[in-house]
Amino acid sequence: MNDTKAKTSKGKQIFRVVLLVGTLISLWFVPWILVKAWIVPLPDTVQEQVDQSLSYGFDGVIVYVDESGKPPAFYGAGYDNRELKTPVNPKALFKIASISKLYVAVAITRLANDNRLSLDKTLADYFPELVGRIENADNITLRAMVQHKSGIPNYTDSADFWKNQPNTNTDVLQYALDLPADFEPNEDYGYSNTNYLLLSRIIEKVVGYSRQQYFKEEILIPLGLNNTFGSISEVNLDDVMSGYYVGIEDDFKTENQGMLATAEDVGIFLRALNDGSLLNEKEMEVYSSIYEFNHGGLVPGYQSMAEYHKDIDAVVIQFMNTTDFEGYQWNLLQITHTRVVKILRKAKDL
Q1: DSSP H helical segments within the chain, as ranges?
Q2: CA separation, residue 47 to residues 134, 234, 281 (Å)
Q3: CATH number at residue 80
Q4: Edge-to-edge strand order for the sheet containing 295-299?
Q5: Which helix (H) or strand (E) holds 303?
Q6: Helix (H, G, I), strand (E, B) or coil at 180
Q7: Structural domains in the chain (count)
Q8: Residue 17: inside a domain, yes or no?
Q9: Which of 82, 83, 173, 229 has the most CB atoms in a 10 Å sphere around its CB?
Q10: Which of 42, 35, 76 shows the shortest CA–CA distance to 59?
Q11: Is the N-terminal amide bond of 166 cis, ω within 30° of 0?
């Protein structure tokens, strides 16, 4: 009997030791920087929150806030260029990456409303040469592409795409060709940059000129947006915020990574998209059935968040010029963005 008790006691001790060791090991892998970002006391002001964000490894932070009934507010902290120690300029141009998908979705909506294209036509209808090179091309509708339900592989998931960066002479579509579909059209959801690459080319095929020119005519000029551009080649580099990748000294500013805009321009666009002043009633009905009204963006050196919060009637745009693609910096962007919104809500309740 005593031997049985001794064995049971010893077994419990071993279990406790194993549990303790397991706990200590798991604590080692906890992303404490994310935990800290969540639990530190919420500051009273947006500027304090922006300043606090620098402690998480960001070189520079820009926040633009447009609250109904108030003048737009601009916040900044850190460096525009860390080598030169140039302070952040809240009105600097920034690479907005996938936020540009909102502009593409608006353009597709307008062209569909004008009967210049059909959301129910297929990829093969516009590019018959892709039959056999993109699986299901004759069954993938434009609607499915806008909604990321096409199953077309994401070209940025290809290792070869990253090996060949930057290479502006290569058609990146090649990294999505001759591959099996991720899933059958409309059977699942899979975020794919290839969808919007092809949609952009369809826009250009339909209108007969560049995507950016169409954006300019249908979105930028009507909204008075003079600081939104299609590529780095259209701007003065001195007006562009530098971009950094954790562990790399290079400045990614000079790389051509798509659209650029100021936080204010993105904010004006986002409010117009959400309040119905950009699209007419019929277009809004179409748009709301195919795509979202908020978006984030991420390319090496640049990450951004553009959101409209209906409950406080506020647009919040956040730019951060440091990325890591490990997930930490992106999660920190989401956390700090959420905290900015909390501060605005709290102030609204006072």
Answers
A1: 2-28, 32-39, 46-53, 100-113, 123-126, 142-146, 159-163, 193-207, 211-215, 221-223, 263-275, 281-290, 328-349
A2: 48, 32, 37
A3: 3.40.710.10
A4: 86-87, 73-81, 60-67, 314-320, 302-309, 295-299
A5: strand 302-309
A6: coil
A7: 1
A8: no
A9: 229
A10: 76
A11: yes
pLDDT in 10s for each residue of the chain, 350 residues: 455 555 555 544 554 444 444 433 333 344 656 777 777 899 999 999 999 999 998 999 999 999 999 999 999 999 999 999 999 999 999 999 999 999 999 999 999 999 999 999 999 999 999 999 999 999 999 999 999 999 999 999 998 888 776 666 678 999 999 999 999 999 999 999 999 999 999 999 999 999 999 999 999 999 999 999 999 999 999 999 999 998 888 999 999 999 999 999 999 999 999 999 999 999 999 999 999 999 999 999 999 999 999 999 999 999 999 998 777 889 999 999 999 999 999 998 86
Structural domain boundaries enclosing 238: 46-349
Structure-token pair, residue 173: 């579509």
Q: What does the block give as tokens for 270?
A: 């986002």
Task: Classify residue 191: in a domain, yes or no.
Answer: yes
